[in-house]
Design goal:
Oligomer: single chain
Shape: globular
Length: 211
């Protein structure tokens, strides 16, 4: 007479532990991706949806396949109200940045130069920063002064404005991120890496030429 072994049952606590571990790993992977981008590395992944990514790391959407950008509103670092939907009719360059971010400091001179030159030339281009993860406005204001940034930045320490972008579109996923909207307020281009003056102009110039 042989003794049969009763099937082992995984305890409820064991299943919960495995689930918690899976969630934790997923969270760490997400944070790691953001940290890599913050450090200036090239973001991984491929283009999806109705857009393509070029060699410079800039993703673009064709004129007929662009998604409407969300309303981005709030208080600027200067304490003034700003709503990006009032800028329709202009090309809008959005830059997500933080004063603590080395890649943001690396690209700041390009933003200062290009924004000034386009304004002096009378081009219909508006620059708006989105300052995030700065615990106070003091460091962010000092950053703007140091790099000659004259356009306004929405103060968004918790990063809530970034979450307004629809998933699966050219949404900001790193710091820094640069998003360019066409004159109809639709997302036309995105970079998830620090941009040079040349790259920034390559994102803006085609939209200036659109009819």
């Amino acid at each position: 007479m042989s003794l049969s072994r009763a099937p082992r049952r995984r305890s409820t606590s064991g299943r919960r532990a495995l689930l918690l571990t899976a969630v934790t790993v997923a969270g760490v992977m997400t944070l790691t991706a953001c940290d890599d981008a913050d450090g200036g590395g090239k973001p991984s992944g491929s283009a999806g949806g109705n857009y393509v990514t070029g060699k410079a790391g800039v993703s673009t959407a064709a004129q007929g396949e662009r998604t409407e950008a969300p309303k981005l509103d709030g208080e600027t670092l200067a304490g003034e109200a700003l709503d990006t939907t009032t800028l329709k009719g202009k090309i809008v360059v959005l830059n997500v940045w933080g004063s603590w971010c080395p890649p943001c400091r690396a690209e700041a001179p390009a933003f200062a130069k290009v924004s000034k030159e386009l304004a002096d030339a009378g081009k219909d281009v508006a620059f708006v920063g989105i300052n995030t993860r700065d615990n106070s406005t003091q460091s962010a204001k000092a950053f703007e002064t140091d790099y000659g940034i004259t356009y306004p930045s929405l103060y968004d320490p918790a990063g809530k404005l970034m979450l307004r972008f629809p998933k699966g579109t050219l949404n900001p996923q790193a710091i820094p991120s640069t998003i360019v909207l066409d004159k109809e307020g639709r997302i036309a281009a995105r970079a998830l890496v620090p941009v040079s003056e040349e790259t920034l102009r390559s994102m803006i110039d085609p939209l200036l030429a659109e009819q």
